[in-house]
Amino acid sequence: MASTVSTQSILQQLTDGDAEPVLVADFQAMTTAPRLSRLLSGRAEGHPVYQVDPVGVLSGDRLYLPLRDLAAACVEEFLACGPPDGPVFIAGHCSASALSLHVANLLAESRDVTAILVGPAWPDEDHVRSRFAEFLSNLGAAGRPCPEFDGDPAATVARMAQVLDEELIAVAASRGANGAAGAFRELLAWYRGWLAFLLACHNDPPMAWASSAPEVIVLSGPADRCTVPGLGQGAYRLCQVPVISITPELAESVLALITSR
Length: 261
What we know:
alpha/beta, globular
């Protein structure tokens, strides 16, 4: 399975261990808040924990990649460095749920796999547009429409990135801070990668499940109405917790599901 992603790895091993490996697909928020993968790595004693970072890849030298390509690259890297056999757990947070299911589905061809979806979200076109508007607002700009999602997705991402870049330059000039614009390039790359990933989620067609499909568990808040596209309610297990935000308590809930298998 040849990787088509980029020179940047999508998978990072956070801890070592001889127990079942745990892959965690999550994102680094633009805050100091910890990631689910980091919280789990500090608690999952004996389990090798791997962080799956699609936004990091899409912030690099690739404008856009379908979820299937990102998942294939993740599986390729894991099979090259992880244990050669045995069960695998995959935890996907929020919008990373679809990617996690693709990874689980690929690994299920040869491994016993359990996918844990933590507060799953399935981005649609409105979600991508609202994030684009949010990023514009964060730059101190507003009022520009989101580019249309027609034609090549990479071209769509490039158009969104161009608008964000133009607004950053305009805001910097209006504040007499032209020399500081370069300091925000990393932020713009993160915005671009995040929008590219959400667009890939929106563009993702229905999954063709492997003959030996992974077990799927959904971890949700008590008031959430969670569904898994392509699966009926009887095809996955629903577990509810008091709070679904990224906290040590949530990490303990995920770990409890892993250790109970």
